[in-house]
Amino acid sequence: MPPHTRGGYTSTAPRRRPTGSERRRRVQLREVEPEHPRHDRDETEEVLEGAPGGPIDRCILRSFQKHVAAKIWLGEDRAPLKLVNHGAKLQLWELDVERSRIYETVQRSGLAPLISCSHRVASRPMLSAFCERWQPETTTFHLPFGGMTITLDDVASILHIPITGLMISFSQPLRVDDANALLVELLGTTDVEASRETEQCRSPSVRLQWLRENFSTITDVSSDDDIDFATRAFLLHLVGCTLFADKSATSVGVVYLELFRDLSMVGSYAWGAACLAFMYRQLTTTTRFEVRQLGGYLTLLQAWIYEHFPEMFSSLDMAYIESRPRALRWRPHVIPDSLQSLRERLDRLQISDVCWEPYVDHRAEHPFPDIAWFSGCIKCGLVVESYHPERVLRQFGHIQTIPPRPFAPPRPDRSILLDQYWERWTDHVLIDHSRGRRCHYSGESVAEYMAWYDRISHRIVQPPHLRSGFTTDARSSLPSHTASTSDSRNARALRLLRHVISGGRQQSGDYFWGALNEAHSILAGSDETSASHSTPSPAPASHSTPSPATRPFFCPPTFVYPPPASVDPPPATVDPDPSSPVAPPAPASGPTASTTVYVRSKRKKKT
Fold first, then answer.
1. 168: closest CA among 275, 276, 269, 281?
2. Separation between Cα atoms, residue 599 and residue 587, nearest integer Å
3. What is the dihedral sign for C-alpha 258, 264, 269, 275?
4. Predicted confidence band at 534 (pLDDT cuts at 50, 70, 90)?
5. CA–CA distances in Å: residue 73 to residues 188, 411, 457, 464, 484
6. Mind listing the pLDDT tens digit for each residue in 298-308?
7. Per-residue b or e along 388-412, where b marks 16 or more CB atoms closer than 10 Å to that residue's CB
8. Does residue 225 carry a pLDDT above 70?
9. 211: helix, coil or strand?
10. How far, in Å, are 145, 232, 354, 444 from residue 148 at the CA level?
């Protein structure tokens, strides 16, 4: 008897004809089956549609009922995601001068920047808060003012890996037997070693530790075959720790080893596009409430947040130069805020809080890639995701218009058509009409965009009854002149500090101190009320004034200004100005207090 399909699997057992009682039962079930059987789904959609901040028109976010943001709005909560970050593991396999031949091959592959630009620290609350705003249908983050996403331009600028070339494609999933054969052929292992490793991983994968233990000791004095084996093992270890880090947290798929068969062809692949498709899929997975872990290349996601929201999350590395990947521009750190606090901060985001074009200074070293305008599908093996630059035109410096309805990605088995589509990417970029006009100001959109976006999006994640701290409602209860004055001062101070940050280390120390002094005066509200504040008070003797080279740029709220030009102490009878930003300390008791408090010598003066 020929095989037949039952429940999705193939069976060779003989089929049984249903009995009469079974046929009558099926007829009864069909008769009592309701006309619209999905009552639970409809009721959930009605609740979501009636909630403030929920999508009114569900034509775009069709799967929002299963989204983690929908669960949060209904009162359920999810802890910060567990992160899969291998930044520290890359340091365990270094390519020193004794392995120069391996490094030369890695450098020709275009993947060498990944060795140095991976962040060793990732912030769980920050990344979890952004994952809650990812929408799979549009492959964008839904923020209060519109959509944003990681583009091919972001990948190229942050990582400096190729985004053009051959698409990474696999015809079918790799079986364990085929994985063992690849390990024997391309890494030179024995059948027993390969079988033992895949059995331990319980999948066609190998452990990252196994790769380091077996191939990190090979040097330039080894044979040519051993050097090729070690080079493939290093590249597999590299992409497993960075571009294709999966939720196993310890292993990497052997399927990527096929890409390193011909070491001279490694640089011909579009590694950046594959990394972006893999990151999109990992973000899509985390939108389900039951998921507790985030994979993918977290350095890409974290550096993207730093670039576009520098005033909220970032810590700038003042030693950065523009010839290096932008991922090295930031000092990764753990955000001390809780997940709930970050939800509320993102709910209060405004257009002015975003750096829409962060790579302006980087264009001299890394020009804008035209392939970033490509509109279609990107893939990584069997992972296919949609790429919609028309939904984030403001990130390209253009006025945001209402985008067309997003298209669903095709099945992975149509890989040949997708590869041909990608190879002719110049025929599938957005035309000038679709790109629209250039922005007159950052974050500009057409008048009807926000009304459309309010109808199809879930702009607010944290429910109003679960908010805490100083919210927008609390601000509205303040006097209008207080709120407007405070907002104006904050905006002026942030604009000033933004110019200082963009200048880098080339600026003089006097400029830094002057800018900090002016920003402090603005925030203190003293720049308009008193002219005496333009001259800072002398620094107390109990606080040493660090040099600009050693002092951190982001100073604490209490600033310490540089000492005045004159070192003579002020007269003892002059009272300090109480309105000064930093008042001198009160003199100690005793006949010589007024003459010794400002003296920095170890020897006391004689009275």
1. 269
2. 13
3. positive
4. very low
5. 54, 33, 14, 9, 30
6. 999 999 999 99
7. bbbbbbbbbebbbbebeebeebeeb
8. yes
9. helix
10. 9, 36, 10, 13
Token pair 């405004």 in the structure block, residue: 350
pLDDT at 24 over 70: no
Q: Which of 393, 135, 395 minimizes the C-alpha distance to 280?
A: 135
Quick: pLDDT tens for 452-506: 999 999 999 998 877 775 444 443 443 433 334 555 667 667 766 765 665 555 5
Is residue 201 helix, strand or coil?
helix
How many helices and strands (H and E) does the chain possess? Answer: 22, 11
Cα distance between residue 607 and residue 603, in whole Å: 13
Question: Is pLDDT of 334 > 90?
Answer: no
Tell me the average pLDDT of the chain. 79
Cβ atoms 504, 550 nearer than 8 A: no
Q: What is the 3-state secondary structure (H, E, C) of 152-174?
A: HHHHHHHHCCCCCCECCCCCCCC
The SS3 of residue 140 is strand
Asked if pLDDT for residue 180 goes beyond 90, the answer is yes
Give residue 170's Cα distance to chain centre.
Answer: 27
Instruction: With both helix axes pointing from N to C terminus, report the angle between 100-109 and 224-241 in degrees, rounded to the nearest 10.
Output: 50
Residues 231-245 as b or e (16 or more Cβ within 10 Å = b) = bbbbbbbbbbbbbbb
User: Of all helices (H) and strands (E), which one includes residue 129?
Assistant: helix 124-131
* Residue 479, both tokens: 């006097």
- What Å distances lie between residue 439 and 445, 452, 494, CA to CA? 8, 20, 22
